[in-house]
Amino acid sequence: MCPPEHFTVEYAINPWMDTKIAVDGALALKQWASLRDTLTDLGHLVHVLDARPGLPDMVYSANGAFSVDGTVYGARFKYPQRAGEADEHRAFYAEKTDNWRFFAPEQVNEGEGDFTYLPGAYGGIVLAGYGFRTDPAAHAEAQEILGRPVISLKLVDPAFYHLDTALAVLDDRHVTYYPEAFSPASQRVLAQLFPDALLADRSDAEAFGLNLVSDGRHVILNTEATAMGHKVRAAGYLPVHVNLSELKLGGGSVKCAVAELRP
């Protein structure tokens, strides 16, 4: 995670960003700390990246890389405003060379924003989004680097510009997603792969209820996503709500703020 010490909305690169709305920096830091404390209270180890001036979106640390079994596929951001974040994430893994094998990408991709992993599904598969940020050629590149099958899914609604705004992993084998965020063909692929998926509706997705983090039992999601909280509880998980209203101003929520490490 990376604290929002320099978080502002200085530019608009997704439909949620409005440069006319001011960010409450102190509140953003307080909310971020609440998310970090929630994770540690649940028994998770949180590494903290130092925030850097000039990189206001660095708080969305999920976008900086994607790791599977100790192999790290680095990010290459679409927009120049965020390009410097990739170097900060690469430096983090370089400090831990005994545990990680880092690969710099040739293709544009935005890390866990558009990649996620299910170790218990079909022997271990990667789901990968494209359509707005990540180049589909990055999916093939990631497959060669990670040695895991990569399933390409086309995003079609600009409001859900990253995979992690439209789909979330609940445990090693199960997902939840908003079907209409995907192309008809990708909807058919998801239905075939995950016939028992927990389906979300547009109001869930617009509340960033799919931008969640799950440890297989606890599902951490923002306080606005009350309906999604009821759905995951009915599915047998324990919802844990955290208020991240300020981070939503930049187009992100719980998952965007957390890069999951898979050593």
TrEMBL record:
Note one Pfam family from the annotation: DDAH_eukar
Q: Which domain of life is it from?
A: Bacteria
Query: Could you tell me the keywords of this UniProt record?
Result: Hydrolase
Q: Which GO terms describe its molecular function?
A: hydrolase activity
What SUPFAM superfamilies does the annotation carry? Answer: Pentein (SSF55909)
Q: What is this protein called?
A: N-dimethylarginine dimethylaminohydrolase
- Native source organism of the sequence: Actinoplanes lutulentus
